[in-house]
Amino acid sequence: MFSQLDRAPAISPSPNEKPLTRDQKVTYSDPMDAVFKALADPTRRELLDELFRADGQSATALGARFEMTRFGIAKHLKLLEDAGLVVVRRRGREKLHFLNPVPIRLIHDRWVSKYAEPWAAALSDLKSRLESPMEKIFEIYIKTTPEKLWEAITDSDIRSKYQFGNTLTSDWTPGSRFEMRNPKADAPLGEGENIEVDPPRRLVQTMTALWGEDVKAEGTSRITWEIEPVGDSCHLTVTHDQLREGANDQLYGGWPMILSGLKTWLETGEKLTTPGSLMYA
To answer: Which of 35, 112, 233, 275 has its CA 20 to 30 A from that of 123?
Structure first.
């Protein structure tokens, strides 16, 4: 079936063009290249599975489950960290590794959601199905300034554009209260206290969910927003901790979609239009 193609005459490049041969490499600048490269290796996928099973593990604990040297495990973890799929936090002398599902959510929003949202959404929000979420860490890079990112986090109207239509009202001073509402709800959906307010770098809040008796029973958790400028972009880290063992995943399962919506709004001025992101809007 390829006989005619095989006999086709070669096309000679012009004097100003370099011929493209099979042994030449094509380089892409898309940051998702690192994500696909990291996911292509079965060992790295198994490491993510282990963090999915039990988040916040040291390299030693992870290495005990693989027939591999500590150096080999560290090399795989570094590639996962560079791709943004793993976040590292130091606790005393230990370095703990946390699964970060945001890059996977971005892949979902870019290619999958338009065609297969009904079955794919359950696969993309890996973080939302962990059984023991004492501490959840989410990272994302956004091409914006710290000031604009801070505004997007604290401005109620902008917040509603990427957080399911919900608004947050507060005077954003240390010790002040905030309230989360939605036009479709008669009562507040959440409330809390702004513990630390350091614009445009750091915001620490307590949060009590009020949208149902099941989440209300979970009590108060803590959310920390940290903004770090990196060139013409910002590295945003959201840490949701002080969650009880086995906490209801409604409390933290929406973060990948929220942060994807935040990135989309700041970089394009548009809202996400996936069914999940519009379900309460």
So the answer is: 233
